[in-house]
Amino acid sequence: MEHYKIYERGKFLALDLGGTNFRVLLIHLGEHCFDMKSKIYAIPQNIMLGTGEALFDHIAECMANFMEEQDVFYETLPLGFTFSFPCIQEGLTKATLETWTKGFKCSDVEGHDIVQLLKDAINRRGVSCYIFLGDMVYLMAVLNDTTGTLMSCAYKKHNCRVGVIVGTGANACYVEKIENAENYNGEPGPQRMVINTEWGAFGDNGVLDMIRTEYDHEIDQYSLNPGRQVFEKMISGMYMGELVRLVLVRLVQENLLLGGIGSDILFTRGQFFTKYVSEIESEKRDEHTNCRLVLEEMGLGHANDRDCAIVRYVCESISRRAAYLTSAGVSCLLDRMNDSDVTVAVDGSVYRFHPHFHDLMMQKIGDLSPKIKFELMLSEDGSGRGAALVAAVACRTAG
Predict the structure, then answer these.
(1) Could you give the angle at the alpha carbon of 387 between the alpha carbons of 385 and 389, nearest 5°?
(2) Of 57, 145, 307, 381, which is the active-site residue?
(3) What are the start and end residues of each CATH 3.30.420.40 domain in the chain?
(4) Which of 88, 185, 234, 382 is the most exposed place for a label (fewest CB within 10 A)?
(5) Is 128 left (phi over 0), alpha (psi -120 to 50) or beta?
(6) pTM for the full model?
(7) Closest CA relative to residue 54, chosen from 45, 179, 358, 70
(8) Domain 146-379 falls in which CATH fold?
């Protein structure tokens, strides 16, 4: 158990959909504790590219199985739903999907309320004991993973004002003064609100073309959403490994790497995984054990030390660019808020597992915003914890 002062209490469910894995969480909030149990479920490729009904049925089934395993199937539990895709949010329990990202392309979801789709899927489980699921779970909040990340740190660090995700996708949110929120049409009263920037779509109008490379254009051309999420495709884990592969292919073709001899795996899209970048960069610069293992796995066992040094340099160049672009976005938000001391909550597989991403961001944000004191705080299980916390606050407010 972790010990914090928490005013919301009780058991809460949280769902977290934001990539190729889907998580269900059961969170128990007490006066001085935060206890969490969770399980990860894979989302098969055929579901990611199938119908919306199949996707939400899969989510409902995973949730039902998890509730049975945790022996809470017949308890009445509030639910927070982290749905990490661009949405138009009209309320705490109403969000319409604008466009799929991160490799999803389910039909009949774009333009629809994802809360209603989830409710419909839960209600479709009206067989045997599952009939109770629709009655015993009630949705209190739907939110983006950046908001969940911010919330999960804000109950520990009250100066947390920014949430950032650098994982399969890339996005950020921040706390804005209500008078600056031009599209806010809610009730008067709150002085600040959380703005989901959806900065992954920055550059979709061409403003980043001056810094995009031929490799960025090729990534975009062969993606599921050409012309969209331009900024995200320069940063996130879904594309970082493929960017490295494209550069390596070019170097091999120009006889500058591996003696001009490639392999079928190297020439196959998507076969240089982003995890390879972290593995290669985790070694000391003059060591090549991990790099050789990666290259051997790709059928490139003939690499020499010079080849390994070049591969590492390519990885470093692409990961450093990603860290610097992310830092530029964070710095813009810090400058806009103009607070003297800000905690930035960060989550996502790239930030978590890349050995230098945190340090690169600390250095670059410091360069870009030298007058602002800031801290980068890893948000542990941010999406799920944040969803539960928002649901808990919504319950307290509603009660």
Answers:
(1) 70
(2) 145
(3) 10-143
(4) 185
(5) left
(6) 0.82
(7) 45
(8) Hexokinase; domain 1 (3.40.367)
